[in-house]
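Progress against Task 2.4 (sequence-to-structure conversion) is shown through the following example record, which the project officer requested during the mid-term review.
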Amino acid sequence: MANDLLSSMHISAAGMTAQRTRMDIVSENIANAESTRTENGGGPYKRRQVVFQAVTPQQTFSHVFNSAFQPDKHQSVKAAYIAEDNKPFREVYDPSHPDADSNGIVKMPNVNPVQEMVDMNGAARSFEANVTTMEASKRMFLKSLELLR
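Structure tokens generated for the chain above:
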């Protein structure tokens, strides 16, 4: 039972780490929503997204050995990589902008601030759910120790 409680805490911690990465990327997207030039001069900023991957948590030798007889279905999550969104850039007519083309069109980032705020809210709620799960696991673990006294 203690191993299951510790596993749930590790899974919650991995979830919090993944959601933190997601919040960082969403924050970066919001900060660059009006950036018409990137650091390397490659045009407007491209929206980025975190891609998650299910992973089996790292286990001890004895856990792997025992799971050969009793399969373990615990999985965790990690931020596998950051992908660029290939949606087209927004085009805005502003002939006075320094990045305007000969027709006065400026290519703006493919970032929708409303969508980013929805993503940020989802990431924050997922983070909170993982915190709640970790706290519940901690309370159960402490209660188990108390019962063993």
